Each structure stands twice: as C-alpha cells, then as structure tokens.
Amino acid sequence: MAPCMCSKISPADSLVLGAVQIMIGIFHVFMWYFLLILYMGQIRGVFGTYEPITYKTGCSLWGIIFIIAGVSIIRATRHPTQGMITCALTTNIFCIIIAIIASVLTTIELSSFNSVSYRNYGQAKLGREVSRVLLISYPLEFSIALTYSIFGCIDLFRNTVPEIKNSPEGMKKRFVLKEDKHQQTS
C-alpha cells in the first residue's frame, strides 16, 4: 500500500487561513452592527416591523467565533503544541457547525418574506440584501474551517501515532540500522 502523500499544511498557509477567518469574522460583526442600526430604526407601521430569524438569533454576531478560530489557528501555527493544535481544531469544528446553522437560518429567512408596511419596506429589502451577502460568506468560512480541521487532524495523528514502519522514512531508518548492526559484527 502506498504511503499517504497528504502532508501537513504549511505554516504560511495556516497563517493565511487564520487571517482570512479573522477578516470574515470582523465582516460578520460589522454586518451585525449594521443590521442592528437598520432594524432598530424601523417605524411601527400597519403590518408591524420586519425582524427576521437571523436578526433575532444574532446570527451575524456569531462572527466572533470565526475571529476566535482564526486567532487559535495563528497561535497554533506559531506555537505548535498538541494542546494548541487541539484547541484550533476544536474551534474550527465549532465554526463548521455554526456556518451550517447560519446558512440554514439565512436560507429560511430568504425563502419567506412577510409583507411589511411601506414605511419599513426599504429597510427590510436592504436587510435581506445583507443576508444574501452573508449567505455567500458562510460557505467560504465552512471551507476554511474544514480545510484546517482536516489538516489539523492529520497533524495530530502524525504527532501521536508512532511512525509507520512501511513509510519511506521508516524503511530508510531500518535499512541504516541493519547496516550498522552488520558493520558492528564484522
């Protein structure tokens, strides 16, 4: 059986993934603040105000967790201990779950639109456009967190499991040891 050619992710790539996660998280927090200002400014009309499920749950505020995951990736890259890698892996798995939940909630929000009074219609339309933009960013966050999680698992596996004897490095070490034993007996 051929050895696995998957290597661990390079430190530069890990730093980039962490930085992109932090930027996505900051973007989500700013969008939450924008939606907060937008929806708080609604005037109670005949049909009420528009408060979608993503606004009520603070879905875009969950970007704080994306920021924490990005910071943990950068810390695990700079100080690669087993505990730091496990922490980064855990936060990224949490990010995957959050990105899926946020995508589902945003899709539910965008699939139904109860009419609102004409006073709030413009704010509701703008809020829905923000939700569409956020819906595009959730798969990006999902893919970044999944990529790091996969390579983080590979890195943890390689650090905790003893070296596989059939790997090329293991075969070289056994060959060198056999030569050393042979030379010592001569």
What would you say this structure looks like, in words?
Helix 1 runs antiparallel to helix 5 (121-160), helix 3 (63-78) packs antiparallel against helix 4 (82-111) and helix 4 (82-111) runs antiparallel to helix 5. This protein has one domain (11-161). The protein has helices at 11-40, 53-57, 63-78, 82-111, 121-160, 168-185. The longest helix has 40 residues, at 121-160. The model is unreliable at 1-6 (pLDDT under 50). With 186 residues, the protein is mostly helical. The protein is elongated, with a radius of gyration of 25 Å. It contains 6 helices and no strands.
Topology:
Elements: H1 11-40, H2 53-57, H3 63-78, H4 82-111, H5 121-160, H6 168-185
Helix pairs in contact: 1-3, 1-5, 3-4, 4-5
Poorly predicted runs: 1-6
Q: What fraction of the residues are assigned to beta strands by DSSP?
A: under 5%
Helices, by number, come to: 6
Structural class by SSE content: mainly alpha
> How many distinct domains?
1
Shape label: elongated
